[in-house]
Specification:
171 residues; 7-stranded antiparallel beta sheet; Alpha-D-Glucose-1,6-Bisphosphate, Chain A, domain 4; two-stranded antiparallel sheet; alpha+beta
Length: 171
């Protein structure tokens, strides 16, 4: 059984900077694997997972470029900065954060060693505030707030699909 849980954003991660922005919505989901996983393998498995393949078809149908397997490989290897609507905003040896076009959305992946040959893998999103509430406090737009329940469901589904993809490649 593939278990994915909503969790705290790791304190020293690239995603933690978004958690500090007033009015920003930032989250993290985590799953575990019983073997080492590199960031390159995580990116390849995430963007090549069966669930994300459906999203790739949707992106292709609306005219987004760079959704081929070779584009995934380039992004994973760090030789390509763009993939479809995403552009690398920050990267280190264990994580990558991607900006979605000119939108306020960020996507984040991290592979973190966790004990003897185990790996915690993370997927998270941040939505920067675009409006203010009645008191002038920054907040994310109403469309993003409306779809937050679906976002949480879909995030778990994406990470579960990624875990299964990595397990399949490990066998």
């Amino acid at each position: 059984m593939t278990h994915v849980e909503k969790t705290a954003i790791p304190r020293d991660s690239l995603m933690s900077a978004y958690e500090q922005i007033d009015g920003c919505s930032a989250d993290a989901f985590r799953g575990y694997l019983e073997f080492p996983v590199t960031l390159e393998a995580l990116i390849t498995a995430f963007f090549g997972s069966p669930i994300f393949n459906l999203e790739r078809l949707l992106l292709k149908s609306i005219g987004q470029a760079n959704t081929s397997r070779s584009d995934i490989t380039g992004l994973a290897a760090g030789t390509q900065e763009k993939f479809a609507a995403w552009k690398v905003e920050g990267r280190n040896e264990s994580e990558v954060i991607l900006k979605v076009g000119s939108s306020p959305i960020r996507s984040w992946l991290m592979a973190c060693p966790d004990g003897d040959d185990k790996t915690a893998i993370y997927f998270g999103s941040a939505v920067l505030p675009q409006t203010t509430d009645q008191n002038g406090k920054p907040q994310v737009g109403s469309t993003f707030r409306l779809f937050m329940g679906f976002h949480n469901f879909y995030s778990r589904l994406l990470l579960k699909s990624t875990i299964k993809n990595l397990q399949k490649k490990q066998r």
